[in-house]
Write a structure and sequence with these properties.
Blueprint lengths: L1 E6 L4 E8 L4 E9 L4 H16 L8 E5 L5 H18 L3 E4 L1 H10 L7 E8 L2 E7 L5 E9 H4 L9 E3 L3 H7 L9 E3 L6 H10 L34
Parallel strand pairs: 1-4, 4-5, 6-9, 9-10
Antiparallel strand pairs: 1-2, 2-3, 6-7, 7-8
Helix pairs in contact: 1-2, 3-6
InterPro entries: ATPase_NBD (IPR043129), Gcp-like_dom (IPR000905), T6A_TsaB (IPR022496)
Organism: Bradyrhizobium aeschynomenes
Protein name: tRNA (Adenosine(37)-N6)-threonylcarbamoyltransferase complex dimerization subunit type 1 TsaB
Length: 232
């Protein structure tokens, strides 16, 4: 199966083509960036597809990150994935950034729990906790950092995500220290592709995965001026 993976949810723009039959990445590229995903994604996709040696019609599936993440960045990736899927008549699946962060650690099936954490600003993080084998211990949610530290009850964790270092710096001294801290701007696009290959299209929709309302608000309407007539 050939999978095109796309990730624009956080502070990078990434794409890859995975061939699951040979368990090999045909091509991949990642560009660090906080803004500019809309301008960078299509040229990046063109390069990756050319390097992969396959066309969009050859793909079996498109996988895209659904969040949590940047409101604007998510929309860029999701729009591109849906557009390609529609034009190429291929299915598209969604992969959460939290699960993509945890995937490489879970693949090693270690004993330590895995906490995926993404900076949600204002002393909050998006997070989830899974066992070393991938069993869900705490469902994806947004919470204050102090609340997340209660996950110390599961034992010494492996911290992953762009907020991993933030959690490590606040980890309670009376709890078992983290066994590892992996702070990455975004998940490894390789694992977005593998999770996309394993996903069931019927249960992995390519739509934004919000854990709270977006920090984007429409502009306030200007107050209406009273209508004046000739008699007023």
């Amino acid at each position: 199966m050939l999978i095109l993976a796309i990730d624009t949810a956080l502070d990078h723009c990434a794409a890859a083509v995975l061939d699951t039959d040979s368990a090999a990445m045909r091509a991949q590229d990642t560009l660090p960036m906080k803004r500019g995903h809309a301008e960078a994604l299509m040229p990046l996709l063109a390069r990756v597809m050319q390097q992969s040696g396959v066309g969009f019609s050859d793909l079996d599936r498109i996988a895209v990150t659904t969040g949590p993440g940047s409101f604007t960045g998510l929309r860029v990736g999701l729009s591109a994935a849906r557009g390609i899927a529609l034009a190429a008549h291929k299915p598209v699946v969604g992969v959460t950034t939290l699960s993509a962060y945890a995937a490489p650690v879970v693949s090693e099936d270690r004993a330590s729990p895995v906490i995926s954490a993404i900076d949600a600003r204002h002393d909050h993080v998006y997070y989830q906790v899974v066992s070393g084998s991938g069993e869900e211990l705490v469902a994806p949610q947004v919470g204050a950092i102090d609340d997340v530290l209660a996950a110390a009850r599961f034992g010494a964790p492996h911290l992953v995500g762009n907020a991993a270092a933030i959690l490590a710096g606040r980890w309670p001294g009376n709890g078992a220290a983290p066994v590892a801290v992996d702070t990455e701007a975004g998940p490894d696009i390789t694992w977005v592709a593998w999770l996309g290959a394993a996903a069931d299209p019927a249960h992995a929709p390519a739509r934004p995965f919000y854990l709270r309302a977006p920090d984007v608000k429409p502009p306030a309407s200007a107050p209406l001026e009273p209508v004046r007539t000739a008699a007023s």
